[in-house]
Predict the structure.
Amino acid sequence: VRSAECVIVGAGSAGLAAARTAARHGVRVVLIDERRELGGQGGDWVPSTARATAGGDRFGDAEEDKGHRLVEAVRTLGVGLRLGAVAWAVFDPRVVALATDSEAECIAADTLILATGAFDRPVPFPGWTLPGVMTAGAALRLMTADRVLPGRRVLIAGSGPLLLALAHQALRGGAEVAAVCEASPMRGAWRQAHRLVPHLDYVQQAHHYRRVIRDAGVPVLAGHVLRRALGESAVTGAVVSPCDGDWRPIGGAERHLDVDAVIAGYGFVSSTELARLAGCEHRYAPEVGDYVLVKTREMESTVPGLFIAGGGAGAAGSVVALEEGHVAGLAVAHRLGRIDARAYSREASRARGRLLHLAGLREVIDVMHRFGPGVYALAEDATLLCRCEEISTGEARAAIRDGATHVNEIKARTRIGMGRCQGRLCGPALAHAIAGASAIGVVEAGAFTPRPPVKPVSLGALANPVG
Amino acid sequence: MSGGDLRMTGGERRRIVQIAVDGQTVTAREGESVAAALIAAGHRVMRWTARGEPRGYFCGIGICRDCLVIADGQPDTRACMTPVREGLRVESPRGPSAPAERA
Protein backbone atom coordinates (compact mmCIF):
# COMPACT_ATOMS: atom_id res chain seq x y z
CA VAL A 1 0.00 0.00 0.00
CA ARG A 2 1.39 3.35 -1.06
CA SER A 3 0.57 6.52 0.78
CA ALA A 4 -0.22 10.08 -0.27
CA GLU A 5 -1.00 13.29 1.51
CA CYS A 6 -4.00 13.83 -0.71
CA VAL A 7 -5.77 11.56 -3.18
CA ILE A 8 -8.31 13.11 -5.54
CA VAL A 9 -10.74 10.93 -7.50
CA GLY A 10 -11.95 12.60 -10.69
CA ALA A 11 -10.01 14.95 -12.98
CA GLY A 12 -12.93 17.11 -14.10
CA SER A 13 -13.48 20.71 -13.09
CA ALA A 14 -13.69 20.05 -9.35
CA GLY A 15 -10.84 17.55 -9.15
CA LEU A 16 -8.49 19.68 -11.26
CA ALA A 17 -9.23 22.83 -9.25
CA ALA A 18 -8.70 20.94 -5.99
CA ALA A 19 -5.42 19.46 -7.26
CA ARG A 20 -4.13 22.85 -8.42
CA THR A 21 -4.95 24.59 -5.15
CA ALA A 22 -3.60 21.83 -2.90
CA ALA A 23 -0.43 21.37 -4.95
CA ARG A 24 0.24 25.13 -5.01
CA HIS A 25 0.34 24.96 -1.24
CA GLY A 26 2.87 22.17 -1.33
CA VAL A 27 0.57 19.21 -0.77
CA ARG A 28 1.68 15.97 -2.45
CA VAL A 29 -1.35 15.05 -4.55
CA VAL A 30 -2.29 11.93 -6.48
CA LEU A 31 -5.07 12.51 -9.05
CA ILE A 32 -7.04 9.57 -10.47
CA ASP A 33 -9.31 9.51 -13.52
CA GLU A 34 -10.86 6.84 -15.66
CA ARG A 35 -10.12 8.71 -18.86
CA ARG A 36 -6.64 8.87 -20.31
CA GLU A 37 -6.63 12.64 -20.48
CA LEU A 38 -7.32 15.34 -17.91
CA GLY A 39 -10.56 17.31 -18.14
CA GLY A 40 -13.19 14.89 -16.93
CA GLN A 41 -16.43 14.16 -18.62
CA GLY A 42 -16.30 17.03 -21.02
CA GLY A 43 -15.47 20.47 -19.67
CA ASP A 44 -18.82 21.81 -20.73
CA TRP A 45 -20.38 18.69 -19.48
CA VAL A 46 -22.74 19.90 -16.79
CA PRO A 47 -24.49 23.10 -17.82
CA SER A 48 -22.47 25.96 -16.55
CA THR A 49 -24.60 28.13 -14.31
CA ALA A 50 -22.75 31.34 -15.16
CA ARG A 51 -22.15 31.73 -18.84
CA ALA A 52 -20.03 34.67 -19.86
CA THR A 53 -21.36 36.49 -22.90
CA ALA A 54 -24.00 35.86 -25.50
CA GLY A 55 -21.31 35.31 -28.08
CA GLY A 56 -21.65 31.56 -28.58
CA ASP A 57 -18.26 30.44 -29.83
CA ARG A 58 -16.45 33.34 -28.22
CA PHE A 59 -17.65 32.04 -24.90
CA GLY A 60 -16.70 28.48 -25.79
CA ASP A 61 -13.17 29.58 -26.59
CA ALA A 62 -12.83 31.46 -23.30
CA GLU A 63 -13.98 28.39 -21.39
CA GLU A 64 -11.61 26.20 -23.32
CA ASP A 65 -8.72 28.55 -22.54
CA LYS A 66 -9.54 28.42 -18.84
CA GLY A 67 -9.67 24.64 -19.02
CA HIS A 68 -6.30 24.44 -20.79
CA ARG A 69 -4.69 26.69 -18.19
CA LEU A 70 -6.05 24.54 -15.39
CA VAL A 71 -4.76 21.34 -16.99
CA GLU A 72 -1.39 22.99 -17.65
CA ALA A 73 -1.11 24.09 -14.01
CA VAL A 74 -1.89 20.61 -12.71
CA ARG A 75 0.72 19.12 -15.05
CA THR A 76 3.48 21.55 -14.08
CA LEU A 77 2.80 21.42 -10.33
CA GLY A 78 4.03 17.85 -10.13
CA VAL A 79 0.71 16.21 -9.29
CA GLY A 80 0.97 12.41 -9.42
CA LEU A 81 -1.33 11.25 -12.18
CA ARG A 82 -3.14 7.92 -12.44
CA LEU A 83 -5.00 8.16 -15.73
CA GLY A 84 -6.93 5.34 -17.34
CA ALA A 85 -7.44 4.09 -13.79
CA VAL A 86 -10.75 3.28 -12.14
CA ALA A 87 -11.11 4.02 -8.42
CA TRP A 88 -13.23 1.00 -7.61
CA ALA A 89 -13.44 1.17 -3.83
CA VAL A 90 -12.66 3.22 -0.73
CA PHE A 91 -11.75 1.08 2.25
CA ASP A 92 -11.61 2.04 5.89
CA PRO A 93 -11.13 4.90 6.28
CA ARG A 94 -9.34 6.50 3.33
CA VAL A 95 -7.62 3.72 1.40
CA VAL A 96 -8.40 4.04 -2.31
CA ALA A 97 -8.30 0.95 -4.51
CA LEU A 98 -7.69 1.58 -8.19
CA ALA A 99 -7.09 -0.50 -11.27
CA THR A 100 -5.98 0.13 -14.83
CA ASP A 101 -6.51 -2.39 -17.62
CA SER A 102 -3.51 -4.36 -16.39
CA GLU A 103 -2.53 -3.30 -12.86
CA ALA A 104 -4.05 -2.73 -9.43
CA GLU A 105 -2.90 -0.38 -6.71
CA CYS A 106 -3.97 0.74 -3.23
CA ILE A 107 -3.16 4.19 -1.88
CA ALA A 108 -3.63 5.19 1.77
CA ALA A 109 -4.57 8.86 1.78
CA ASP A 110 -4.13 11.34 4.64
CA THR A 111 -6.91 13.30 3.00
CA LEU A 112 -9.26 12.23 0.23
CA ILE A 113 -11.27 14.40 -2.15
CA LEU A 114 -14.05 12.70 -4.12
CA ALA A 115 -14.83 14.74 -7.24
CA THR A 116 -16.68 12.01 -9.07
CA GLY A 117 -19.10 14.18 -11.02
CA ALA A 118 -22.64 13.64 -12.15
CA PHE A 119 -24.58 11.94 -14.91
CA ASP A 120 -27.92 12.37 -16.66
CA ARG A 121 -30.93 11.35 -14.62
CA PRO A 122 -31.92 8.06 -16.23
CA VAL A 123 -35.60 8.03 -17.26
CA PRO A 124 -36.91 4.90 -19.01
CA PHE A 125 -39.47 5.43 -21.78
CA PRO A 126 -40.57 3.18 -24.63
CA GLY A 127 -37.78 3.05 -27.18
CA TRP A 128 -35.05 4.47 -24.90
CA THR A 129 -32.61 1.72 -25.86
CA LEU A 130 -32.79 2.41 -29.62
CA PRO A 131 -29.57 3.60 -31.25
CA GLY A 132 -29.96 7.31 -31.94
CA VAL A 133 -31.47 7.95 -28.51
CA MET A 134 -28.90 9.54 -26.23
CA THR A 135 -28.68 11.53 -23.03
CA ALA A 136 -28.18 15.29 -22.98
CA GLY A 137 -24.68 14.83 -21.60
CA ALA A 138 -23.80 12.39 -24.37
CA ALA A 139 -25.08 14.80 -27.03
CA LEU A 140 -23.22 17.72 -25.48
CA ARG A 141 -19.96 15.80 -25.41
CA LEU A 142 -20.48 14.58 -28.97
CA MET A 143 -21.04 18.11 -30.26
CA THR A 144 -18.57 20.09 -28.12
CA ALA A 145 -15.67 17.67 -27.76
CA ASP A 146 -15.94 15.61 -30.95
CA ARG A 147 -17.73 18.15 -33.19
CA VAL A 148 -20.17 15.56 -34.52
CA LEU A 149 -23.94 16.04 -34.73
CA PRO A 150 -26.21 13.42 -33.12
CA GLY A 151 -28.32 13.34 -36.28
CA ARG A 152 -29.66 15.36 -39.21
CA ARG A 153 -33.03 16.03 -37.60
CA VAL A 154 -33.11 16.00 -33.83
CA LEU A 155 -35.71 16.09 -31.05
CA ILE A 156 -34.47 17.56 -27.77
CA ALA A 157 -36.60 16.68 -24.74
CA GLY A 158 -36.43 16.77 -20.97
CA SER A 159 -36.06 19.71 -18.65
CA GLY A 160 -33.61 22.46 -17.87
CA PRO A 161 -31.58 25.21 -19.51
CA LEU A 162 -29.25 22.67 -21.13
CA LEU A 163 -32.00 21.82 -23.64
CA LEU A 164 -31.76 25.30 -25.16
CA ALA A 165 -27.97 25.15 -25.22
CA LEU A 166 -28.14 21.81 -27.04
CA ALA A 167 -30.66 23.11 -29.57
CA HIS A 168 -28.45 26.13 -30.19
CA GLN A 169 -25.40 23.90 -30.70
CA ALA A 170 -27.24 21.54 -33.04
CA LEU A 171 -28.63 24.42 -35.14
CA ARG A 172 -25.22 26.10 -35.40
CA GLY A 173 -23.77 22.76 -36.44
CA GLY A 174 -26.26 22.55 -39.30
CA ALA A 175 -28.79 20.07 -37.93
CA GLU A 176 -32.53 20.54 -38.03
CA VAL A 177 -34.24 20.60 -34.64
CA ALA A 178 -37.75 19.15 -34.87
CA ALA A 179 -38.76 20.52 -31.45
CA VAL A 180 -37.54 21.33 -27.98
CA CYS A 181 -39.77 19.66 -25.41
CA GLU A 182 -39.56 21.17 -21.90
CA ALA A 183 -41.44 19.09 -19.33
CA SER A 184 -41.86 21.91 -16.83
CA PRO A 185 -44.85 24.16 -17.52
CA MET A 186 -42.73 27.36 -17.26
CA ARG A 187 -45.89 29.28 -16.32
CA GLY A 188 -45.21 31.98 -13.77
CA ALA A 189 -41.53 32.00 -14.65
CA TRP A 190 -41.73 35.80 -14.48
CA ARG A 191 -42.21 35.46 -10.71
CA GLN A 192 -38.58 34.40 -10.56
CA ALA A 193 -37.43 37.26 -12.74
CA HIS A 194 -36.27 39.55 -9.92
CA ARG A 195 -34.05 36.78 -8.59
CA LEU A 196 -32.24 36.67 -11.93
CA VAL A 197 -31.21 40.33 -11.73
CA PRO A 198 -27.74 39.53 -10.32
CA HIS A 199 -27.24 37.01 -13.11
CA LEU A 200 -27.56 39.18 -16.17
CA ASP A 201 -24.86 37.25 -18.05
CA TYR A 202 -26.85 34.07 -17.69
CA VAL A 203 -30.08 35.77 -18.78
CA GLN A 204 -28.37 37.19 -21.87
CA GLN A 205 -27.01 33.79 -22.81
CA ALA A 206 -30.41 32.11 -22.43
CA HIS A 207 -32.03 34.93 -24.42
CA HIS A 208 -29.50 34.50 -27.21
CA TYR A 209 -30.20 30.77 -27.38
CA ARG A 210 -33.96 31.41 -27.48
CA ARG A 211 -33.58 33.92 -30.29
CA VAL A 212 -31.50 31.54 -32.42
CA ILE A 213 -34.04 28.77 -31.78
CA ARG A 214 -37.01 31.00 -32.61
CA ASP A 215 -35.37 32.39 -35.75
CA ALA A 216 -34.87 28.82 -36.95
CA GLY A 217 -38.60 28.23 -36.54
CA VAL A 218 -38.14 25.50 -33.95
CA PRO A 219 -41.18 24.95 -31.73
CA VAL A 220 -40.41 25.08 -28.00
CA LEU A 221 -43.12 23.04 -26.29
CA ALA A 222 -43.33 23.74 -22.55
CA GLY A 223 -45.30 21.25 -20.49
CA HIS A 224 -44.61 18.52 -23.01
CA VAL A 225 -42.88 15.23 -22.51
CA LEU A 226 -41.27 12.69 -24.81
CA ARG A 227 -43.61 9.68 -24.81
CA ARG A 228 -41.71 7.24 -26.99
CA ALA A 229 -38.95 6.83 -29.52
CA LEU A 230 -39.85 4.86 -32.64
CA GLY A 231 -37.78 2.70 -34.96
CA GLU A 232 -36.57 -0.81 -35.72
CA SER A 233 -32.78 -0.89 -35.65
CA ALA A 234 -32.40 2.83 -34.90
CA VAL A 235 -34.56 5.89 -34.25
CA THR A 236 -36.81 7.06 -37.07
CA GLY A 237 -39.36 9.04 -35.10
CA ALA A 238 -40.70 10.11 -31.73
CA VAL A 239 -43.99 10.96 -30.07
CA VAL A 240 -44.48 13.87 -27.67
CA SER A 241 -47.55 14.92 -25.71
CA PRO A 242 -48.58 17.27 -22.90
CA CYS A 243 -47.73 16.45 -19.29
CA ASP A 244 -48.85 17.80 -15.93
CA GLY A 245 -46.77 19.87 -13.50
CA ASP A 246 -45.24 16.66 -12.14
CA TRP A 247 -44.06 15.70 -15.64
CA ARG A 248 -46.71 12.95 -15.76
CA PRO A 249 -47.95 12.33 -19.29
CA ILE A 250 -51.62 13.22 -19.76
CA GLY A 251 -53.86 12.25 -22.62
CA GLY A 252 -54.54 14.40 -25.61
CA ALA A 253 -52.70 15.98 -28.46
CA GLU A 254 -49.95 13.56 -29.34
CA ARG A 255 -47.51 14.80 -31.93
CA HIS A 256 -45.50 12.55 -34.16
CA LEU A 257 -42.10 13.81 -35.29
CA ASP A 258 -39.79 12.32 -37.91
CA VAL A 259 -36.29 12.43 -36.44
CA ASP A 260 -33.08 10.41 -36.63
CA ALA A 261 -31.85 11.37 -33.18
CA VAL A 262 -33.55 11.87 -29.83
CA ILE A 263 -31.80 13.68 -27.00
CA ALA A 264 -33.33 13.13 -23.57
CA GLY A 265 -32.09 15.15 -20.60
CA TYR A 266 -33.97 15.47 -17.33
CA GLY A 267 -31.20 17.10 -15.33
CA PHE A 268 -28.27 15.48 -13.59
CA VAL A 269 -27.80 13.24 -10.58
CA SER A 270 -24.64 12.87 -8.54
CA SER A 271 -22.24 9.95 -8.61
CA THR A 272 -22.21 9.14 -4.90
CA GLU A 273 -21.35 5.44 -4.81
CA LEU A 274 -17.72 5.81 -3.64
CA ALA A 275 -18.75 8.28 -0.94
CA ARG A 276 -21.57 6.03 0.22
CA LEU A 277 -19.24 3.04 0.20
CA ALA A 278 -16.89 5.03 2.44
CA GLY A 279 -19.77 5.61 4.85
CA CYS A 280 -20.53 9.26 4.08
CA GLU A 281 -24.02 10.28 5.14
CA HIS A 282 -26.45 11.44 2.48
CA ARG A 283 -30.04 12.59 2.38
CA TYR A 284 -32.74 12.64 -0.27
CA ALA A 285 -33.56 16.10 -1.64
CA PRO A 286 -37.05 15.86 -3.20
CA GLU A 287 -36.77 19.26 -4.92
CA VAL A 288 -33.95 17.93 -7.11
CA GLY A 289 -35.00 14.28 -6.92
CA ASP A 290 -31.57 13.09 -5.90
CA TYR A 291 -29.43 12.03 -2.98
CA VAL A 292 -27.15 14.76 -1.70
CA LEU A 293 -24.12 14.07 0.47
CA VAL A 294 -23.98 15.81 3.82
CA LYS A 295 -20.95 18.10 4.10
CA THR A 296 -19.57 21.10 5.93
CA ARG A 297 -18.71 24.45 4.37
CA GLU A 298 -15.14 23.09 4.20
CA MET A 299 -16.56 20.49 1.77
CA GLU A 300 -15.83 17.78 4.36
CA SER A 301 -18.21 14.82 4.47
CA THR A 302 -19.31 13.07 7.66
CA VAL A 303 -16.17 10.89 7.33
CA PRO A 304 -13.27 12.93 8.74
CA GLY A 305 -10.63 13.79 6.15
CA LEU A 306 -12.91 12.85 3.27
CA PHE A 307 -14.00 15.83 1.18
CA ILE A 308 -16.61 16.08 -1.57
CA ALA A 309 -16.49 18.58 -4.43
CA GLY A 310 -18.31 19.22 -7.68
CA GLY A 311 -21.11 17.29 -9.33
CA GLY A 312 -20.65 14.51 -6.84
CA ALA A 313 -21.96 16.92 -4.24
CA GLY A 314 -25.08 17.99 -6.08
CA ALA A 315 -25.00 18.44 -9.84
CA ALA A 316 -24.59 22.18 -10.09
CA GLY A 317 -22.44 22.93 -13.09
CA SER A 318 -18.78 23.30 -13.85
CA VAL A 319 -18.40 26.83 -12.47
CA VAL A 320 -19.66 25.66 -9.10
CA ALA A 321 -17.45 22.57 -9.37
CA LEU A 322 -14.35 24.74 -9.87
CA GLU A 323 -15.10 26.79 -6.74
CA GLU A 324 -15.95 23.74 -4.64
CA GLY A 325 -12.76 22.04 -5.75
CA HIS A 326 -10.80 25.15 -4.83
CA VAL A 327 -12.36 25.23 -1.35
CA ALA A 328 -11.67 21.51 -0.84
CA GLY A 329 -8.05 22.01 -1.94
CA LEU A 330 -7.69 24.88 0.53
CA ALA A 331 -9.26 22.85 3.33
CA VAL A 332 -6.84 19.99 2.67
CA ALA A 333 -3.84 22.35 2.67
CA HIS A 334 -5.08 23.83 5.92
CA ARG A 335 -5.70 20.42 7.47
CA LEU A 336 -2.16 19.34 6.58
CA GLY A 337 -0.71 22.53 8.06
CA ARG A 338 0.42 24.08 4.76
CA ILE A 339 -1.49 27.31 5.23
CA ASP A 340 -2.29 29.11 8.44
CA ALA A 341 -5.80 29.71 9.64
CA ARG A 342 -5.88 33.34 8.60
CA ALA A 343 -4.80 32.75 4.99
CA TYR A 344 -7.18 29.83 4.79
CA SER A 345 -10.21 31.72 6.00
CA ARG A 346 -9.42 34.72 3.77
CA GLU A 347 -9.15 32.61 0.61
CA ALA A 348 -11.97 30.25 1.49
CA SER A 349 -14.43 33.01 2.31
CA ARG A 350 -13.81 34.65 -1.07
CA ALA A 351 -14.64 31.39 -2.80
CA ARG A 352 -17.68 30.90 -0.60
CA GLY A 353 -18.94 34.32 -1.60
CA ARG A 354 -18.76 33.29 -5.24
CA LEU A 355 -20.49 30.00 -4.42
CA LEU A 356 -23.29 31.84 -2.64
CA HIS A 357 -23.82 34.00 -5.71
CA LEU A 358 -23.97 30.93 -7.96
CA ALA A 359 -26.33 29.15 -5.54
CA GLY A 360 -28.85 31.96 -6.06
CA LEU A 361 -29.02 31.17 -9.76
CA ARG A 362 -29.15 27.43 -9.15
CA GLU A 363 -32.17 27.89 -6.88
CA VAL A 364 -34.08 29.78 -9.56
CA ILE A 365 -33.27 27.08 -12.12
CA ASP A 366 -34.35 24.34 -9.70
CA VAL A 367 -37.68 26.08 -9.08
CA MET A 368 -38.35 26.67 -12.79
CA HIS A 369 -37.38 23.11 -13.73
CA ARG A 370 -38.48 21.38 -10.56
CA PHE A 371 -38.02 17.62 -10.83
CA GLY A 372 -41.30 15.83 -11.62
CA PRO A 373 -41.41 12.20 -10.48
CA GLY A 374 -44.44 11.65 -12.74
CA VAL A 375 -41.99 11.20 -15.61
CA TYR A 376 -41.35 7.66 -14.37
CA ALA A 377 -44.91 6.81 -15.47
CA LEU A 378 -43.65 6.92 -19.08
CA ALA A 379 -42.32 3.36 -18.87
CA GLU A 380 -44.76 0.72 -20.07
CA ASP A 381 -44.67 -2.91 -18.95
CA ALA A 382 -42.64 -3.86 -22.04
CA THR A 383 -40.14 -1.00 -21.56
CA LEU A 384 -36.75 -2.24 -20.39
CA LEU A 385 -36.05 -0.97 -16.90
CA CYS A 386 -32.64 -2.63 -16.68
CA ARG A 387 -30.79 -1.97 -19.93
CA CYS A 388 -27.85 -4.24 -19.02
CA GLU A 389 -29.70 -7.42 -18.08
CA GLU A 390 -32.61 -6.62 -20.41
CA ILE A 391 -35.32 -6.87 -17.75
CA SER A 392 -38.65 -5.14 -18.30
CA THR A 393 -40.56 -2.69 -16.16
CA GLY A 394 -43.36 -5.26 -16.10
CA GLU A 395 -41.12 -7.73 -14.27
CA ALA A 396 -40.33 -5.10 -11.66
CA ARG A 397 -44.02 -4.24 -11.32
CA ALA A 398 -44.85 -7.94 -10.83
CA ALA A 399 -42.30 -8.14 -8.02
CA ILE A 400 -43.85 -5.04 -6.43
CA ARG A 401 -47.33 -6.60 -6.66
CA ASP A 402 -45.84 -9.65 -4.92
CA GLY A 403 -44.95 -7.39 -2.01
CA ALA A 404 -41.38 -6.25 -2.67
CA THR A 405 -40.81 -2.90 -0.96
CA HIS A 406 -37.09 -2.19 -1.41
CA VAL A 407 -34.87 -1.93 -4.48
CA ASN A 408 -32.38 -4.44 -3.06
CA GLU A 409 -35.19 -7.00 -2.70
CA ILE A 410 -36.16 -6.61 -6.35
CA LYS A 411 -32.50 -6.82 -7.36
CA ALA A 412 -32.22 -10.20 -5.65
CA ARG A 413 -35.44 -11.44 -7.26
CA THR A 414 -35.11 -10.14 -10.80
CA ARG A 415 -31.41 -9.33 -11.39
CA ILE A 416 -32.39 -5.70 -12.07
CA GLY A 417 -29.29 -3.70 -11.13
CA MET A 418 -26.84 -6.56 -11.44
CA GLY A 419 -25.51 -5.59 -14.86
CA ARG A 420 -22.47 -3.69 -15.92
CA CYS A 421 -23.79 -0.21 -15.17
CA GLN A 422 -24.15 -1.53 -11.62
CA GLY A 423 -27.55 -0.09 -11.04
CA ARG A 424 -26.73 3.49 -11.99
CA LEU A 425 -29.28 3.61 -14.82
CA CYS A 426 -32.07 1.59 -13.19
CA GLY A 427 -31.83 2.38 -9.45
CA PRO A 428 -33.77 5.66 -9.42
CA ALA A 429 -36.43 4.37 -11.84
CA LEU A 430 -36.89 1.23 -9.75
CA ALA A 431 -37.31 3.23 -6.52
CA HIS A 432 -39.91 5.39 -8.28
CA ALA A 433 -41.65 2.30 -9.66
CA ILE A 434 -42.07 1.08 -6.07
CA ALA A 435 -43.24 4.50 -4.89
CA GLY A 436 -45.65 4.83 -7.81
CA ALA A 437 -47.30 1.45 -7.24
CA SER A 438 -47.59 1.38 -3.47
CA ALA A 439 -47.86 3.56 -0.38
CA ILE A 440 -44.11 3.36 0.08
CA GLY A 441 -42.14 6.55 -0.42
CA VAL A 442 -39.20 6.82 -2.76
CA VAL A 443 -36.81 7.20 0.20
CA GLU A 444 -38.09 4.01 1.84
CA ALA A 445 -37.86 2.20 -1.51
CA GLY A 446 -34.17 2.95 -1.18
CA ALA A 447 -31.06 2.94 -3.32
CA PHE A 448 -28.93 -0.04 -4.27
CA THR A 449 -26.25 -0.72 -1.66
CA PRO A 450 -22.91 0.17 -3.26
CA ARG A 451 -20.48 -2.71 -3.23
CA PRO A 452 -16.88 -2.93 -4.35
CA PRO A 453 -15.96 -2.86 -7.15
CA VAL A 454 -18.29 0.09 -7.82
CA LYS A 455 -17.21 -0.05 -11.47
CA PRO A 456 -16.17 -3.12 -13.46
CA VAL A 457 -12.46 -3.97 -13.20
CA SER A 458 -10.64 -6.91 -14.74
CA LEU A 459 -9.55 -9.87 -12.66
CA GLY A 460 -6.24 -9.75 -14.52
CA ALA A 461 -5.59 -6.26 -13.18
CA LEU A 462 -6.51 -7.25 -9.62
CA ALA A 463 -4.12 -10.20 -9.86
CA ASN A 464 -1.31 -7.82 -10.72
CA PRO A 465 -0.81 -5.45 -7.77
CA VAL A 466 1.91 -2.81 -7.87
CA GLY A 467 3.49 -0.86 -5.01
CA MET B 1 -31.01 9.25 -43.05
CA SER B 2 -27.84 9.52 -40.97
CA GLY B 3 -24.21 9.81 -41.91
CA GLY B 4 -22.04 11.61 -44.36
CA ASP B 5 -22.58 15.18 -43.30
CA LEU B 6 -22.74 15.02 -39.54
CA ARG B 7 -19.35 16.67 -39.06
CA MET B 8 -19.49 20.15 -37.55
CA THR B 9 -16.87 22.81 -38.09
CA GLY B 10 -14.23 23.04 -35.40
CA GLY B 11 -12.89 19.50 -35.56
CA GLU B 12 -10.42 20.28 -38.36
CA ARG B 13 -7.52 20.67 -35.93
CA ARG B 14 -7.45 16.93 -35.65
CA ARG B 15 -5.45 14.83 -38.07
CA ILE B 16 -7.48 12.74 -40.51
CA VAL B 17 -6.83 9.01 -40.14
CA GLN B 18 -8.24 5.77 -41.48
CA ILE B 19 -9.82 3.14 -39.27
CA ALA B 20 -11.50 -0.16 -40.16
CA VAL B 21 -15.11 -0.71 -39.10
CA ASP B 22 -16.23 -4.32 -39.57
CA GLY B 23 -13.59 -4.59 -42.28
CA GLN B 24 -14.55 -1.40 -44.15
CA THR B 25 -12.26 1.62 -44.24
CA VAL B 26 -13.70 4.69 -42.57
CA THR B 27 -12.21 8.17 -42.35
CA ALA B 28 -11.99 9.49 -38.80
CA ARG B 29 -10.19 12.13 -36.77
CA GLU B 30 -7.35 11.25 -34.48
CA GLY B 31 -8.25 11.63 -30.82
CA GLU B 32 -12.02 11.84 -31.26
CA SER B 33 -13.99 9.09 -29.56
CA VAL B 34 -14.56 5.89 -31.51
CA ALA B 35 -18.28 6.49 -30.89
CA ALA B 36 -18.11 9.87 -32.64
CA ALA B 37 -16.25 8.33 -35.58
CA LEU B 38 -18.90 5.61 -35.88
CA ILE B 39 -21.81 8.07 -35.70
CA ALA B 40 -20.19 10.40 -38.24
CA ALA B 41 -19.80 7.42 -40.56
CA GLY B 42 -23.48 6.51 -40.18
CA HIS B 43 -22.98 3.52 -37.85
CA ARG B 44 -25.51 4.23 -35.14
CA VAL B 45 -25.81 0.55 -34.18
CA MET B 46 -22.65 -0.37 -32.27
CA ARG B 47 -23.55 -3.79 -30.98
CA TRP B 48 -26.37 -6.29 -30.62
CA THR B 49 -27.41 -7.56 -27.18
CA ALA B 50 -27.86 -11.17 -26.07
CA ARG B 51 -31.55 -10.82 -26.97
CA GLY B 52 -30.72 -9.45 -30.39
CA GLU B 53 -31.54 -5.81 -29.68
CA PRO B 54 -29.46 -3.06 -31.29
CA ARG B 55 -27.62 -0.60 -29.05
CA GLY B 56 -25.57 2.51 -29.67
CA TYR B 57 -24.06 5.59 -28.09
CA PHE B 58 -26.22 6.45 -25.07
CA CYS B 59 -24.64 7.95 -21.93
CA GLY B 60 -21.40 9.16 -23.50
CA ILE B 61 -19.40 8.86 -20.27
CA GLY B 62 -18.64 5.18 -19.90
CA ILE B 63 -21.44 4.22 -17.51
CA CYS B 64 -24.09 2.45 -19.59
CA ARG B 65 -21.80 0.17 -21.62
CA ASP B 66 -24.19 0.14 -24.52
CA CYS B 67 -21.46 1.19 -26.96
CA LEU B 68 -19.15 -1.77 -26.27
CA VAL B 69 -17.19 -2.72 -29.37
CA ILE B 70 -14.21 -4.93 -30.16
CA ALA B 71 -11.22 -2.63 -30.73
CA ASP B 72 -8.01 -4.15 -32.11
CA GLY B 73 -9.28 -7.50 -30.86
CA GLN B 74 -10.00 -6.23 -27.35
CA PRO B 75 -13.63 -7.07 -26.43
CA ASP B 76 -15.83 -4.89 -24.20
CA THR B 77 -14.14 -1.67 -25.26
CA ARG B 78 -16.28 1.42 -24.65
CA ALA B 79 -16.50 3.34 -27.91
CA CYS B 80 -17.33 6.54 -26.02
CA MET B 81 -14.18 6.36 -23.88
CA THR B 82 -11.71 5.20 -26.50
CA PRO B 83 -9.82 7.70 -28.66
CA VAL B 84 -9.38 7.04 -32.37
CA ARG B 85 -5.88 6.22 -33.58
CA GLU B 86 -4.59 5.47 -37.06
CA GLY B 87 -5.36 1.96 -38.25
CA LEU B 88 -7.69 1.03 -35.38
CA ARG B 89 -9.83 -2.00 -36.16
CA VAL B 90 -13.36 -1.78 -34.76
CA GLU B 91 -15.86 -4.62 -34.82
CA SER B 92 -19.48 -4.70 -33.63
CA PRO B 93 -20.22 -7.51 -31.20
CA ARG B 94 -23.22 -9.58 -32.18
CA GLY B 95 -25.23 -11.30 -29.50
CA PRO B 96 -26.21 -14.94 -30.05
CA SER B 97 -29.50 -13.92 -31.66
CA ALA B 98 -28.40 -10.95 -33.75
CA PRO B 99 -30.38 -10.64 -36.99
CA ALA B 100 -27.52 -11.60 -39.33
CA GLU B 101 -27.02 -14.85 -37.49
CA ARG B 102 -30.70 -15.60 -37.29
CA ALA B 103 -31.02 -15.44 -41.06
The CA atoms of residues 53 and 98 of chain B lie 7 Å apart. The two ends of chain B are 25 Å apart (CA to CA). Strands of chain B lie at 16-21, 24-29, 47-48, 54-55, 68-71, 74-78, 89-91.
